[in-house]
Amino acid sequence: MDKLSIFLPEQPSKTTHQSGTRYANNRTYKTASLIGWENTLKRHLIKHVPEEPMKGALYLGVVFGFATCDKKKVGKWKTTRPDTDNMIKTVKDVLTRLGYWNDDSQVVFETCRKMWTEKAGILITIENLSEGWLLYTSDYIEQLEKFTGD
Questions:
Q1: How far apart are CA 61 and CA 112, in angstroms?
Q2: What is the mean pLDDT of residues 34-43?
Q3: Beta bridge partners of 78
Q4: Burial class (CB in 10 A: 0-12, 13-18, 19+), 7
């Protein structure tokens, strides 16, 4: 499988991997809220698990759409909490546990966006990075070399 796109018709949780983890007695605990959010993600994502884990270098794109009744906000960036890095961590952990890939270290390129939308939802895209992606990588390396003087 080269590309997989999944839409979850669910309001993104404000509970993230960071806010839903507690430390006590030299142990790490997940809050009930985080466990509930992980179970919600699993319930939707289990329907789309590939027969075989995706191989090689992968791209992961996640768009979190937060529902709002305010028409002026629709289509605009959500610049308030939760933070995207904490939101995507929970999604990656669930995708790993369900077997979408062997290890989340395979995700070498990711984008995460959060925005206001009319209807809540989460769009997840996973794609094998083929030679077409090398054009982007080559351009990036060229720009990096200019910046660093190498």
A1: 6
A2: 95
A3: none
A4: middle
